From TrEMBL, chain A:
<keyword id="KW-0479">Metal-binding</keyword>
<feature type="binding site">
    <location>
        <position position="413"/>
    </location>
    <ligand>
        <name>[4Fe-4S] cluster</name>
    </ligand>
</feature>
<dbReference type="InterPro" id="IPR050067">
    <property type="entry name" value="IPM_dehydratase_rel_enz"/>
</dbReference>
<protein>
    <recommendedName>
        <fullName>3-isopropylmalate dehydratase large subunit</fullName>
        <ecNumber>4.2.1.33</ecNumber>
    </recommendedName>
</protein>
<keyword id="KW-0004">4Fe-4S</keyword>
<dbReference type="InterPro" id="IPR033941">
    <property type="entry name" value="IPMI_cat"/>
</dbReference>
<dbReference type="InterPro" id="IPR001030">
    <property type="entry name" value="Acoase/IPM_deHydtase_lsu_aba"/>
</dbReference>
<keyword id="KW-0456">Lyase</keyword>
<dbReference type="Pfam" id="PF00330">
    <property type="entry name" value="Aconitase"/>
</dbReference>
From TrEMBL, chain B:
<keyword id="KW-0100">Branched-chain amino acid biosynthesis</keyword>
<dbReference type="GO" id="GO:0009316">
    <property type="term" value="C:3-isopropylmalate dehydratase complex"/>
</dbReference>
<feature type="domain" description="Aconitase A/isopropylmalate dehydratase small subunit swivel">
    <location>
        <begin position="1"/>
        <end position="132"/>
    </location>
</feature>
<keyword id="KW-0456">Lyase</keyword>
<comment type="similarity">
    <text>Belongs to the LeuD family. LeuD type 1 subfamily.</text>
</comment>
<dbReference type="InterPro" id="IPR050075">
    <property type="entry name" value="LeuD"/>
</dbReference>
<keyword id="KW-0028">Amino-acid biosynthesis</keyword>
<dbReference type="InterPro" id="IPR000573">
    <property type="entry name" value="AconitaseA/IPMdHydase_ssu_swvl"/>
</dbReference>
<dbReference type="InterPro" id="IPR033940">
    <property type="entry name" value="IPMI_Swivel"/>
</dbReference>
């Protein structure tokens, strides 16, 4: 048999049928559900008198709308509350393998909850009505976001109609410098290939720098592949993958565990497998990244400067750069380290796992938030992450440094709950999108790693965490 | 879903690259549990001068006169002309729902974000990829002529300008069939129920840990 890529293997093992134009029916193993993109899908099922094909594939939680403080008051916004209650009643009516509702210990951001419960496994197809479903590809799963019509389609048929993408290998070789994280690798890649660079591709991340990343770091990387336009990102199985999954609640047990591990170990690209496109980066050259604009590709290194539109010849590009700078309230050529910030957000499905919180706490420890920083909030990705962090005393470190320690959820990543930026406020954020209005209308977002966000909170402006003493 | 065969539509030009789904329909409107009624909040942050929230009477809100959708000459537009990477960002199907509810039947751009592109077909909104040079030409012609319309023929896979220039576009056979006939895709898939069951049985035997 010809050498296959990891993507070839994942795709081929899920094809139910294929039609003449190449459109396939793909079987779906895991369906993650949250409150925002599911109500219309369940409603559709009900209207057509259909039932879910296989409820034991469904794992659900409430995350986008849930508040991050004063849980005793419940959800104050009545429309948010209705959406969460709609999920409660839909799950009650239709069923699920597991549901982690608002206030449950295991509730949290869907892309944190899946892996930590072992609900995401190598070799699976994983879908969710959320673009950052790509996160789960870190486990050598074929994972991608879908729209609400497809949520309904998966519920009703356990399949999706899809065409195979082209395969891209992004190879990062070498050693990452101290203070350089999975987030910086992700932003450096997007800076290199652009926000549409991955459109039409399924991306495999490979190379020694990727293998050196923890599962958390790999999830951060796969999470942001959608920001490069690719639907799915993935990393081959190795010992770290297997180690991470051992003894998780939904991981296979006993003799099934051994059979599963034996299969998972085959989930790597074969020697000599060919990709439609290969992008190579030198890990040793990657530095801590900071975005300055309104698209994740508008990024530079912490030692860099805000670009100057006058230097661009293409009028469309110049206009778009000028618009970004005006929205962000930035002058051309300003050194990144001179940009003062108003708020700090450490959280989101990109960077809210235990390792992220440890890294941020290590920077904050024994220090104080700068006076010009109005709010520095830390939002753990799930109740389990929160519990673990508190067991390690991280919450106390943050609070002592003047940060706020919150309840889990999406929070200010997209500001559907009460956590948001006011117009004109500037935020160092560990989330994944710096679009106009993403964190609140008129809010200005700079994407950074958790340690860079913590350092900015202490300094009051961006600062190179490698030299921060 | 509304079937799509042919459309003669007024064109509205949106001259920006990387228009994201947060811009197409801001998140506060995603709290709805319905599928309809998003049209008045399409491009909300660009279209109105105040901050929009669900439940507001949109007819009373101050319009941004500079935003293209508010210019009288584009009233009733059915074809949106856009730049690269249109619809990037989230998977929210509220984006095509808002476009459809507003009255758009097609979006033309040099490239689209993948999930948005896919979502459009499920809602009777035809996303058409044309080469950059063709899109440039359409932008120029739209700016030059009031009431500029395009004729879109899905069966023939063509876009025809008022002067008779014809551009072809690609679409997979499956999507074309569903769009032309306004078909419910779930119904079509369930015709393969036996195949799905057979696959499932095999799959379960090979990887029993995926079940239960
Ligand atoms: S944390 Fe942000 S990006 Fe992730 S699922 Fe929630 S809203 Fe989406």
């Amino acid at each position: 048999m010809a050498a296959q890529t990891l993507y070839d293997k994942l795709w081929q093992s899920h094809v139910v049928s294929q039609s003449d134009d190449g459109t396939c029916l793909i079987y779906i193993d895991r369906h993650l559900v949250h409150e925002v993109t599911s109500p219309q899908a369940f409603e559709g099922l009900r209207l057509a008198n259909r039932t879910p094909w296989r409820v034991d594939s469904v794992v659900a939680t409430a995350d986008h709308n849930t508040p991050t403080d004063h849980w005793e008051l419940g959800i104050q916004d009545p429309i948010s509350r209705q959406q969460v209650e709609t999920l409660d009643s839909n799950i009650k009516h239709f069923g699920a393998k597991a549901y982690f509702p608002f206030k449950d210990l295991r509730q949290g951001i869907v892309h944190v909850v899946g892996p930590e419960n072992g609900a995401t496994l190598p070799g699976m197809t994983v879908v969710c009505g959320d673009s950052h479903t790509s996160t789960h590809g870190a486990f050598a799963a074929l994972a991608h976001g879908i729209g609400t019509s497809e949520v309904e389609h998966v519920l009703a048929t356990q399949t999706l109609t899809a065409k195979k993408s082209k395969a891209m290998l992004i190879k990062v070789e070498g050693e990452l410098g101290q203070g350089v994280t999975g987030k910086d690798v992700a932003l450096a890649i997007i800076g290199e290939i652009g926000t549409a660079g991955g459109t039409g591709y399924a991306v495999e991340f490979g190379g020694s720098a990727i293998r050196s990343l923890s599962m958390e770091g790999r999830m951060t990387l796969c999470n942001m592949v959608i920001e490069a336009g690719a639907r799915a990102g993935m990393v081959a199985v190795d010992d770290k993958t297997v180690e991470y999954l051992k003894d998780r609640p939904f991981s296979p047990k006993a003799e099934q565990w051994d059979a599963a591990v034996a299969y998972w170990k085959t989930l790597v690209s074969d020697e000599g497998a060919t990709f439609d496109k290969v992008v190579e980066l030198d890990a040793s050259k990657i530095e801590p990244q900071v975005t300055w604009g309104t698209s994740p590709e508008q990024v530079t290194t912490v030692g860099g400067k805000v670009p100057n539109p006058a230097q661009l010849e293409d009028p469309v590009k110049r206009a778009s750069l000028e618009r970004a700078l005006s929205y962000m309230g930035l002058q051309a050529d300003t050194p990144i380290e001179q940009i003062q910030i108003d708020k700090v957000f450490i959280g989101s499905c990109t960077n809210s796992r235990i390792e992220d919180l440890r890294a941020a706490a290590a920077v904050a420890k024994g220090r104080q938030k700068a006076a010009n920083v109005k709010l520095a909030m830390v939002v753990p990705g799930s109740g389990l992450v929160k519990q673990q962090a508190e067991a390690e005393g991280l919450d106390k470190i943050f609070v002592a440094a003047g940060f706020e320690w919150r309840e889990p959820g999406c929070s200010m990543c997209l500001a559907m709950n009460a956590d948001r930026l006011e117009p004109g406020e500037r935020c160092a954020s560990t989330s994944n999108r710096n679009f106009e209005g993403r964190q609140g209308q008129g809010g200005r977002t700079h994407l950074v790693s958790p340690e860079m966000a913590a350092a900015a909170a202490i300094a009051g402006h961006f600062v190179d965490v490698r030299t921060f003493a | 879903m509304k079937a799509f065969t042919q459309v003669d539509g007024l064109v509205c030009p949106l001259d920006r690259a990387n228009v994201d789904t947060d811009a197409i329909i801001p998140k506060q409107f995603l709290k709805s549990i319905k599928r309809s009624g998003f049209g008045p909040n399409l491009f909300d942050e660009w279209r109105y001068l105040d901050h929009g929230e669900p439940g507001m009477d949109n007819s009373q809100r101050p319009l941004n006169p500079d935003f293209v959708l508010n210019q009288p000459r584009y009233k009733g537009a059915q074809v949106l002309l856009a730049r690269d990477n249109f619809g990037c960002g989230s998977s929210r199907e509220h984006a095509p729902w808002a476009l459809e509810d507003y009255g758009f039947r097609a979006v033309i751009a040099p490239s689209f974000a993948d999930i948005f592109f896919n979502n459009c077909y499920k809602n009777g909104v035809l996303p058409i990829v044309l080469p950059e040079a063709a899109v440039d030409q359409l932008f120029a012609e739209t700016a030059a002529a009031d009431g500029y319309t395009l004729h879109i023929d899905l069966a023939a896979q063509t876009v025809t300008t008022p002067s008779g220039a014809v551009f072809g576009f690609d679409i997979t056979g499956h999507r074309k069939h569903c769009m032309l006939n306004g078909l419910d895709e779930i119904g079509l898939t369930l015709q393969h129920a036996d195949e799905i069951k057979a696959f499932e049985a095999k799959h379960k035997q090979a990887q029993p840990w995926l079940f239960g």
